[in-house]
Design goal:
- The N terminus is likely disordered.
- A hairpin with a 2-residue loop joins strand 9 and strand 10.
- The chain has an eight-stranded mixed β-sheet, sandwiched between helices. It has a five-stranded mixed β-sheet with strand order 12-11-13-15-14, sandwiched between helices. It has a two-stranded antiparallel ribbon with strand order 1-2.
- Helix 1 runs antiparallel to helix 2 and helix 5 runs parallel beside helix 7.
- The protein has 281 residues and is of the alpha+beta class.
């Protein structure tokens, strides 16, 4: 997590609802191929000595982050040269294109550095500012979720589906950790946490995949930029869940950093109400 390059919707499209378009089979094949490359590149480098630097926002970046993103960018540009690309490490190119790929080469860099296997490579694709394709690739775990508009989400090749949950009192709630919330955000989150049946800290974006597979009911974060959430949205929606910002608005190119995902819309609505008590996000 951390800051991401600014994304501007193409001129004339801001605030205008456009029909959702599904990615082509060729785009889907490329996304899966990028995930394959990420797994092959990252797995042998996990729990090895890598160079680490601190970015301007105080978050770490390793040589694996930057090298992997460069490789993925090269493959995208070679196949779809007119598409835009926005990456956590390399910034944005052609961000006003109709199709824009959004990359987070190592989501959970701190976990990668600490030898924890919950980090992932996130590969997202937007059409006119809307996330329509997402891959959550966990190289160390061998877990992969693939979501695309108009098709069911797949987990390791089999259909993934959220589970029903009547309300927050029955829900398993997950978040990265309390240190990611500002003071007022933590107070809002605590209203949901106190109401939830189970609270779990950590897990990085793996928690969103587990939500799509019906093991977690609710994930709330307050520091997710475009590269953090773009790939997650199609995975969650394709599994029957819902993912929005804290005001219940659809996520897109200009959204963030506060996001919420739920497997059941009843849980989503109740959690939004608790988060928004006395607030205007």
């Amino acid at each position: 997590m951390g800051t991401s390059p600014h994304f501007s919707a193409p001129a004339g499209r801001r605030g205008i609802a456009t029909p959702e378009i599904s990615p082509s089979e060729e785009m889907l094949r490329l996304a899966v191929g990028l995930a394959d490359e990420a797994r092959a590149f990252v797995r042998p480098r996990f729990r090895s000595r890598v160079s680490i630097e601190e970015k301007s926002d105080g978050t770490p970046v390793t040589e694996v982050d930057t090298a992997l993103e460069a490789r993925l960018r090269d493959r995208i540009h070679a196949r779809f040269p007119v598409h835009g690309i926005i990456g956590e490490e390399g910034g944005g190119q052609r961000g006003d294109a109709d199709w824009v790929w959004v990359l987070d080469p190592i989501d959970g860099t701190q976990s990668f550095i600490l030898g924890k296997p919950t980090f992932a490579t996130l590969i997202g694709l937007m059409h006119r500012g809307r996330p329509v394709l997402g891959v959550i690739e966990h190289p160390a775990l061998g877990d992969r979720w693939v979501g695309a508009a108009g098709t069911p989400t797949l987990f390791n090749g089999a259909a993934a589906r959220v589970r029903p949950c009547a309300g927050v009192a029955e829900a398993a709630l997950s978040t990265t950790g309390p240190n990611w919330f500002a003071e007022d955000e933590l107070a809002s989150f605590d209203r949901v946490r106190r109401a939830a049946k189970v609270q779990h800290w950590g897990g990085d974006c793996h928690a969103f995949g587990l939500l799509a597979s019906g093991f977690i009911d609710l994930v709330i974060e307050s520091s997710h930029r475009l590269h953090d959430f773009c790939a997650l949205v199609p995975v969650i929606s394709g599994a029957g869940g819902v993912m929005t910002d804290w005001a219940g608005r659809a996520l897109g190119g200009g959204s963030g950093p506060r996001v919420i995902a739920a497997g059941d819309r009843r849980v989503h609505a109740e959690a939004l109400a608790l988060l928004g008590e006395g607030k205007s996000w």
